[in-house]
């Protein structure tokens, strides 16, 4: 593994460390960030985990989650100050710095050593020590490998193991997606030996829905779902008022897109979500349908071949039209 010795040297004495995760952090970003924070604290580092925006409530049980500094929740000055004072900044689970939102320029201009740990493809050259492995199913999987390579696995306790397991379980769709490899299962076996209670993590993440979320799913299936069989495509659209009607919280619409991909014959699925300031898109595919490239081409986004996201500043109706234009343009690939 490249960069291992410089990383070992960097963390060999106590430092002021900031760990950043992407906006709307998912279980992989937050779990990896919190797992790394807990590990570094055991080596007497001063560590803060910073997120640009809130994480979903179903992750609030992750050890250390309550201490995450959420920049958008009145913590802008504090976040910026922590970044400016840091000796080391870790960037966890994101390929381009713009996913840090308003923290981006502060991180970019900081004199700290920047360490990237990520599994997304990118052309961005940012970072002093870059650990990027696009074959890793999750950034959490890659972090565990780094911990082993550093010879620090004895520090992995149950809490850290469960943080990393949460990231791997969700990024692989519970070991269903094509990113799941023999190495993924080996890492998970190690995490279980370190005490991870996999049934508990699964229950806390997947069986922790409020009733509104379920009722909204029923509504969305009936009134917000479009299937385009000639294009092997299906999508949900969500209007801004739906969030109020169903009292939806951050994360409550996660998983919707997977319902669309679950329909027989569908190879491309989307959730098109109208928010107050923009329309956000979650894209999923199966097989050789490169939704990360399409997200980049049409919606200023990116991600993995089978799971990507992006944004549109058009109206919801215009965004849907643009999405259907995309589908038309890619018809040959979708139906081949
Ligand atoms: P989700 O649909 O779950 O929000 O995101 C799926 C994948 O797409 C994740 O790997 C995430 O990193 C990536 N992704 C989501 N939104 C964006 C975006 O706006 N820009 C980029 N570059 N990637 C995104
Ligand atoms: Mn990830």
Number of contiguous helices: 14
Whole-number tally of structural domains: 2
Oligomer: single chain
Order of strands across the main sheet:
3-2-1-4-5-6
So what's the overall shape?
globular
CATH topology of the largest domain: inorganic pyrophosphatase (n-terminal core)
Secondary structural class: alpha/beta
Overall mean confidence score, pLDDT: 97
The CATH superfamily of the largest domain bears the name inorganic pyrophosphatase (n-terminal core)
Distance between the termini: 39 Å
| Small-molecule binders | guanosine-5'-monophosphate, manganese (II) ion
Compute the CA-based radius of gyration.
Answer: 20 Å
Percentage of β-strand residues: 15-25%
Could you say what the CATH architecture of the largest domain is? Answer: Alpha-Beta Complex
Uncertain segments: none
Largest β-sheet summary:
6 strands, parallel
Task: Describe this structure as you would to a colleague.
- The chain is of the alpha/beta class and 336 residues long.
- It has 2 domains: 4-206, inorganic pyrophosphatase (n-terminal core), CATH 3.90.1640; 211-334, Diaminopimelate Epimerase, Chain A, domain 1, CATH 3.10.310.30.
- Helices cover 41% and strands 18% of the residues.
- It has 14 helices and 12 strands.
- It has a 6-stranded parallel beta sheet, sandwiched between helices. Strands 7-8-9-10-12-11 form a 6-stranded mixed beta sheet.
- It is globular and about 60 Å long.
- Bound molecules: guanosine-5'-monophosphate and manganese (II) ion.
